[in-house]
Design goal:
This protein has about 325 residues and is α/β, with parallel strands linked by helices. It contains 12 helices and 14 strands. The protein folds into 2 domains: about 170 residues, Thiamin diphosphate (ThDP)-binding fold, Pyr/PP domains (Rossmann fold, 3-Layer(aba) Sandwich); about 140 residues, Rossmann fold, CATH 3.40.50. It is about 35% helix and about 20% strand. Strand 13, helix 10 and strand 14 form a beta-alpha-beta unit. The radius of gyration is 19 Å and the shape is globular.
């Protein structure tokens, strides 16, 4: 069942459940931060509306910088601002930032520990019809390997707003990952969000496996858990919104509860959240695992639901991964 202690959205499974793009939460947070802190500045690469930075642009035009289709320049300018007392947010599609401008992010922002927050939008196969060129499925791997980089992958629009606000409290570089299409709102204003923490969203008696999920894929993990429970198979579902840093002791404890782990993400299974979980467990408590995500391939263009089904990333595939572990 849904964890009652987290004040989750109990209507998330309803047919008419509220659904919003996670990028909406980013846009709202920018406006809040703009009012709260005069040192917050925002830069975009010709994508202010798509990345929801246009609200900040209208309210604080003197602190908004449109650099055009020049993602490397955007990162370099932000690095200068971020080492000069400003808190800079840069915003583009994740395939372009941090994809195209990775070296500039690495050398000018991260190496100098500049106070810059990199917002990667339209991530994962959720980008759907735009095809492989715009479906960033390697960005978590790129960002989590950079020294001193914090990485947040919020599960819904509310958590996206909280993660963006939290990023402004962190001195130094942060990567925020957002998606384009609407996804169910799973949390509420009362649901806790904290850097470096994982949360059990689905709890049960005598669970047989632990599912770690991040981003909107958490919803599919919850659907799988609900379906598995109807078959008499109890599991735990854990939201891993903070990819880096992460609470290693909590991950080990949750894995030990069941002795079997499935990781779920809209990302390549190599280098992403699942790899992070595997690294933690390999060091502390080796555990049988299955990985749900893209398997060393680019995805086709199509509706997100069709792509998730084709590449074995939907709730059915998550349930099958659990059963595979249970069957040895």
């Amino acid at each position: 069942m849904l964890n009652p202690n987290l004040k989750l959205n109990e209507k998330m499974f309803d047919p008419d459940a509220e659904a919003l793009p996670t990028r909406d939460g980013f846009g709202k947070a920018l406006e809040i931060l703009g009012e709260r802190n005069p040192n917050v500045v925002v830069l975009t690469a010709d994508l202010s509306e798509s990345t929801r930075a246009d609200g900040f642009q209208k309210k604080y035009p003197n602190r908004f910088f449109e650099v055009g289709v020049a993602e490397q320049n955007m990162a370099a300018i932000a690095a200068g601002l971020g080492t000069s007392g400003k808190t800079a947010f840069i915003s583009s599609y994740a395939t372009f930032s941090p994809g195209k401008n990775l070296e500039t992010v690495r050398t000018t922002i991260v190496y100098n520990q500049a106070d810059v927050k990199v917002a990667g939008h339209h991530s994962g196969v959720m980008t759907g019809p735009d095809g492989a060129t715009h479906q960033a499925t390697e960005d978590i791997a790129l960002m989590r390997t950079l020294p001193g980089m914090t990485v947040f992958v919020p599960c819904d629009a509310i958590e996206a707003r909280k993660a963006t606000e939290e990023s402004a409290n962190i001195q130094g570089p942060v990567y925020l990952r957002f998606t384009r299409d609407k996804s169910p709102v799973m949390t509420t204003e009362e649901t806790p969000f904290e850097k470096g923490k994982v949360r059990e969203f689905w709890v049960s008696e005598n669970p047989k496996a632990t599912i770690f999920a991040c981003g909107y894929m958490l919803y599919y993990a919850l659907l799988a858990a609900k379906n598995l429970e109807s078959e008499g198979i109890n599991v735990l579902v854990v939201n891993v919104a903070s990819i880096k840093p992460v609470d290693e002791s909590a991950i080990v404890e949750l894995a030990k509860k069941t002795g079997k782990v499935v990781t779920v993400e809209d990302h390549q299974i190599m280098g992403g959240m699942g790899s992070m979980i595997a690294e933690v467990l390999a060091k502390n408590s080796p555990t049988p695992m299955e990985f749900v995500g893209l398997r060393d391939t680019f995805a086709e263009s199509g509706k997100p639901e069709e792509i998730l089904s084709k590449y074995n990333m939907d709730q059915k595939s998550i349930a099958e991964a659990v059963k595979k572990l249970l069957n040895g």
